Amino acid sequence: MTDLLGWVATAVFVGSYFFKRPALLRAAQMAGAALWIVYGALIGAIPVVVANGLVFAAAAWTLARSRQTPLATPMPESYRATLTSQPRNN
Predict the structure, then answer these.
(1) What pTM was estimated for this model as a whole?
(2) Integer Cα distance of 7 and 46 in angstroms
(3) Cα(65)–Cα(59) distance, integer angstroms
(4) pLDDT in tens, 23-40
(5) Following DSSP, what letter does each residue of the chain receive, concatenated?
(6) Is 29 exposed, middle or buried (0-12, 13-18, 19+ CB in 10 A)?
(7) Nearest-angstrom CA–CA distance, 5 and 43
């Protein structure tokens, strides 16, 4: 049963690399890390628990930070035209 948990954790973590949306990527990384934490605890591997605790925390922090940052608004066409029409002094 413990080995199966390790394989599921591996599959979830590897699968996270196929997500295109950052929020889903972070959520999958958090799920994989949580599974690895349980696996590490079951086999008594403190380095596995600590390393995946850090992965979980980093994924949670970046997910929370991305939800607080407003989405970028597109540059108005009039401003973009102004930028491209100015001569460059190189």
Answers:
(1) 0.70
(2) 18
(3) 10
(4) 888 999 999 999 999 999
(5) -HHHHHHHHHHHHHHGGG--SHHHHHHHHHHHHHHHHHHHHHHT-HHHHHHHHHHHHHHHHHHHHHHHSPPPPPPPHHHHHHHHHSPP--
(6) buried
(7) 11
